[in-house]
Design goal:
The chain is an all-alpha fold. The chain is built from five helices and no strands.
Length: 145
């Protein structure tokens, strides 16, 4: 397809679009004109008056156009039950550590938090404490007089 053919096709499409828009506008006008009689009103003014009254009664006084109703607030999530760390739980943690499970896997299996697993492992002596960072020793230069 040549460039000129493409331009001609584009112009045809634009003309077709303009016709469709004009038809839509005419259909919209006709549909809006029928509304009062479809809802049982003798004339347009009575229909408009009824619409305004319905808008005022349906909402909280005068509402701004385009402003929707507020969505209901979501219910607050229930707080989880606090886990009791018993001697049995500690024994299970020790067994799972010996089996090579990670802290995350142990926490999920026992229904306790990962920090709780870490605290139990520390209490049982299964984790090493961090090595203390070497303190920066600054040798002072001899004072000059």
């Amino acid at each position: 397809m040549s460039f000129i053919d493409q331009i001609a096709e584009l112009e045809k499409a634009k003309a077709k679009l303009a016709l469709a828009q004009a038809k839509l506008a005419a259909d919209r006008v006709a549909a809006l004109a029928k509304l009062p009689s479809e809802y049982g009103y003798a004339n347009l003014n009575d229909f408009i008056k009824a619409l305004k009254e319905a808008a005022l009664k349906g909402g909280k006084g005068k509402s701004k156009a385009g402003k929707g109703a507020k969505a209901p607030k979501a219910a607050k999530a229930a707080k989880g039950k606090r886990a009791k760390i018993t001697a049995e739980v500690k024994a299970e943690v020790k067994a799972l550590v010996d089996a090579g499970k990670t802290g995350q896997e142990i926490a999920k299996a026992l229904g306790i938090s990962q920090p709780s697993v870490q605290n139990i492992k520390k209490e049982l002596g299964l984790v090493k404490a961090r090595a203390a960072a070497p303190s920066a020793v600054v040798e002072s230069a001899p004072a000059q007089a």
